[in-house]
Amino acid sequence: MNVRRSAAVLAAVAVFGSAAAPAAFADGASPSPSTALPSGLYGKSDPKFDGVFRQSYALLAQDTVGVKPAAKAVNWLTGQQCASGGFAAYRADASEPCDSKTQVDSNSTAAAVQALAALGGEDKSLGKTVEKSVAWLKSVQNQDGGWGYNPGLPTDANSTGIVVGALVAAGENPANVKSQDGKSAYDALPKLAMDCGKGDGAFGLADAKSKKLSPNADATAAGVLGSLGKGLVVAPGKKADDSAPKCAKPDTASQAASNGTGYLLDVLGENDGHLMSAMPGAKDQPDLGNTADAVVALAAAGQRGQAEKSAKWLAENSAKWAKESGPAAYAQLIFAAHAAGMDPRDFGGADLVERLGAQGPPAQTASDSSSASASDEKKDEDGGTNIWWIIGVGMVAGIGIGFLYSANRKKQQP
C-alpha cells in the first residue's frame, strides 16, 4: 500500500550499490545545485526516489478535502507515464523520457491511478491516462490473480492491495479482473493470509530467501483494504462495530480481511494505539506511516473506535515526523484523519491541509478554473489541443526487490 521512499531507495541500492543509500535516506535531500525542481512538484527534494509516490498521495489528499490542485501539479504527474501505461518509482532523471529500460512498477502506477481517477471527472485526457495505466496493470497480473512489485515478481499483499484500490477508483470490479487462469485478487489475497495460530490472522510478508511468510502489520493493512475492495481514501463509517472479530480459516477474502482486522486490533492494543517500526536496527521506534495505514484499514473494516484512538495518537505525535518526511506524510495523515472522522484542518492543532498545500504550487481557485475553461474553449475554436507535457521517467535496470515497501524512512520518531 505504501510506496515508500525507502522502497525506491532499496531498489536503487540493488542496482547502483550502497553508495546511493545515504543521499536517498537523507531527510529533505536536495537536488544538485545545477538542477532546478519542477514548479509543479510537491516537496523540496529531488524526485528521483519518490516523485510519483509523493505527488500521487499529495494530489489525492487534496482532492479528499475538497481542494483542487494546481494544473501544473497534475501535469507533472501525468507526464511521468511511460508509453506502456506504467509509472516508475525510481527515476535517474525525472525530466528525461522513458526508454526501454525504464523499470515501471505496480505500486507507483496504482498510486497514480487512484489520484488521477479522483481528479479526472469529465477530463478526457486524465481519463485516457487512467485507462492506459489500468490496461498495463491488467497486463502484468500474476496467474494467481495478484500482483508483485515489478512484473514477474511473486504476488504480495501490499502490491495487490494498492492495485485493487486503483481498479476500484477506475470503476473496475476487482472480482472481474482475472488472470488467464481465471483468478482475481480475491483469490490471491487469502493465500497471503496466515493461519490463526501461526500468524494470528495477519497477512504475511515473504522472506526474500526462504519465501516463508511472517506476520507484517503494513502488509496486513494493505491486505485488509484490498480484501474489502477499498482504496487509500476511506470514508468513516456511520456506525462502528468494535467487537473483536473471531479468527477462522481464511478461505475467502472477506474472512482474510476479518482475521487481519483482528491482528491489527491486537498489535495496536499492545502498543498504546500505534505500531512499532520493523526496520532493521530500529529499537522501540514508533512507525507513524504504517499506523496511519492501519487507521484507514480499520475504518474500512468498521472498527471506528480503534481507528479514532490511533488517529488521536497520531495527532499528538506526528508533527515532527510529517515535517521531516514531507508531502506524502501529510497526505497519509489526511487519509487517516478523514477515515477516523476527524478534522484534517485541526489535527492535534495542526492544519494538515494548509501544511500539505505549502509543499507544492498554490491550489486552483474558482477564477483559475474559469480562466482555464475559457482558454480551453478558445483553443478548441482555433483547432488547438490541450498539451500534457511528457516529462517522462528515468532509467533503472533490474530492480530486484521482492519485499517491497513495508519499511519506512529512518526517522519515524515523533
Automatic annotation (TrEMBL):
List the InterPro entries: Prenyltrans, Terpenoid_cyclase/PrenylTrfase
Q: Where is the signal peptide?
A: 1-26
Q: The Prenyltransferase alpha-alpha toroid domain covers which part of the protein?
A: 56-205
Q: Which Gene3D superfamilies match?
A: 1.50.10.20
Q: Where does the sequence pass through the membrane? A: 387-407
Keyword Repeat included in the entry's annotation: yes
Q: What is this protein called?
A: Prenyltransferase alpha-alpha toroid domain-containing protein
What is the species of this protein? Streptomyces anatolicus
**Lineage, opening ranks:** Bacteria, Bacillati, Actinomycetota, Actinomycetes, Kitasatosporales
